Amino acid sequence: MTKKKMGMVIYRYNENEDLEIFMVGDGSQMELPQSDFTSSDDFEAETGIAAADNEDVIELDGEEFSPKGGLRHTAIALEAKMEEKIQKFLHIKKEEGNYIAMKEAVRKVIPHQYAILKELKDILMQRNITKYL
Prior knowledge:
By secondary structure, the protein is of the alpha+beta class. It has one domain (4-131): Nucleoside Triphosphate Pyrophosphohydrolase (Alpha-Beta Complex). The protein is 28% helix and 31% strand. It contains four helices and six strands. Strands 1, 2, 3, 4, 5 and 6 form a six-stranded mixed β-sheet that branches. It starts with a strand and ends with a helix.
């Protein structure tokens, strides 16, 4: 039986409207922050934030087995303005990580998290396209 944990993808747009991702690590090998949430229902119960009713919260489908310890990952993406509301549920402090450009993030992320970032990018691109239709 694998223990499920959720990755937390915290994203923002910088002043040039480029997508940035909050990541933790030593600079060469980085990863997405983790939480104690096991599902989007758990996320809602703990934070009071319903993912389905909030456009600043995106449930991501990408699930992969971690090469370390057999953990099965799912993820929720949060726009940076939501971070303060869920900070106590993350295993990191803001000063332990950095926002980095999406292009750089996909190069530095550990392999099983690449699909999560790609899915987020696709969803945000689709939102931006349909916003102007």
